[in-house]
Amino acid sequence: MKTYICAAYAGGQGKTTLAQMVFSALRKRDLAYKLVAADFTDGTGHSKIGKFFPSKVLELGIGSALGSSKSENDANAPLRYWDRFGGLLLTGGAVLDLGANVVPQLVQWAHHRRVTHIMQQRNSPEIDLIVITKPETHSIENVSTLIEDVVVGGALPVANIIVVKNEVGGTFEGQNLARIEKAGGGRSLSFVSIPRCTSELWPHLERTFTPVEEALAATENELAEKFGIEIWSAYAGLMDLKTWSDEVYVQLGRVGI
Question: I need a labelling partner for 170 at 20 to 30 A (CA). Which of 79, 139, 193, 227 fits?
């Protein structure tokens, strides 16, 4: 099974929601994927996506401590930290949620470890890079830069690039996506869209770190009790959430997820 890397160069783009839905879509197909986070963790030891799936996420953190190379008298300590990430790439079968500040570290690690060469030598599973952006010029520019850094620079042997247009902030009409297309460097590049979720349940899911798939499996009575809301809001919210998630699954299915 291939590896899916969900990434963004800026916070607030919807990356964690994307990783959650990719993971859920694969589970719906009875594919046993691991869920991995390389992102900031709080005092509980969980990243944001780790709070949604506390018993399912492998937490890699954000790299070795800044002073580790000095305290251990080993300049290669930061590189070895990410070798765990490399092990996942060699075996495949993982959805990786990468924090914005982590991507540059992993690119540097991949160049030093000659990851592309080793993966090709070992015939490792394919990597699909999934990047997400809102309809904002700077966000689109960030996506282009991320693709250039990871793919064009040869850090990772990415087979397919999937750009997810997050419509939570509006439509992409009039937005120039030409630089993203150019950044793909001739590789397979696809665009899919995630519509804005208007479900009344959404703020409650975010506040309580309730996965979408868990909410979809619940009844309106269970949701009303869980979130302390009226049955009418629970029922309408569940219907809207089903409509939204079905569309997301259709969009992801277009690119083989």
Answer: 227
